[in-house]
Specification:
Helix content: over 70%
Structural class: mainly alpha
Strand content: under 5%
Distance between the termini: 31 Å
Number of strands: 0
Number of domains: 1
Largest sheet: none
Length: about 200
């Protein structure tokens, strides 16, 4: 229970994954919000695996490896900010999605972007390596299996919470897209937030 409560606080706290999911739900509807939630969740799996197998410890001790991954993440966040700002496509309220012809492309782009956001975040890797061992006893005979169980709980909780964010954003979509000025400022706000998160990561 202590682990679940702590993990819930961590997952609910807004970050790049939450921002990505909310942006997808607002701009492309329920399906995109759920797809983004799934993509962000999938992006946590390599991080959890790295913590379990000890790869995160190598990343923590290797300054070069950490810096490379960090700046790849910074570059990707800045690219997300730029692409969001340049996105001039119109939004429609048709069944809570974009027009049918653009849905497949949107789905693939959303899930790839969501996965990359978490995969290229070294802070998430270090979070796993620092967070999971706190809930495994020193005398635990099956420590790896225990960490795998905790990681699975964290991943499932991430999916549920992020899906909730995506659906909540999608319910507000009709009110947002009926106001072109709001849409423009919304995109600027998302772009600025992505850029700010990239800057924060660069100086972490």
């Amino acid at each position: 229970m202590e682990f679940l409560l702590t993990a819930l606080v961590v997952v609910v706290t807004p970050g790049t994954g939450v921002l990505c999911t909310i942006a997808a739900g607002l701009t492309h509807g329920r399906r995109a919000g759920l797809v983004a939630a799934l993509g962000c969740t999938l992006g946590t799996l390599p991080q959890a695996l790295a913590a379990i197998t000890g790869l995160a410890a190598l990343l923590h001790t290797s300054t070069v490896a950490f810096q490379i991954l960090k700046y790849l993440g910074v570059a990707y966040l800045l690219w997300m900010a730029w692409s969001t700002l340049r996105d001039k496509s119109s939004l429609t309220a048709q069944d809570g999605h974009e027009e049918a012809g653009s849905a497949p492309r949107t789905t693939s782009k959303v899930i790839v972007s969501a996965v990359l956001l978490n995969v290229l975040n070294p802070k998430l890797t270090l979070f796993f390596v620092a967070f999971l061992p706190q809930f495994v006893r020193e005398d635990e005979p099956h420590a790896v299996w225990r960490m795998a169980q905790l990681s699975a709980c964290f991943v499932l909780l991430t999916l549920v919470v992020f899906a909730g964010y995506g659906l909540a954003a999608a319910t507000m979509r009709a009110q947002v897209i009926s106001r072109p000025r709001v849409v423009r400022w919304m995109r600027r706000a998302f772009a600025g937030t992505f850029a700010a998160l990239g800057a924060r990561l660069a100086f972490f």
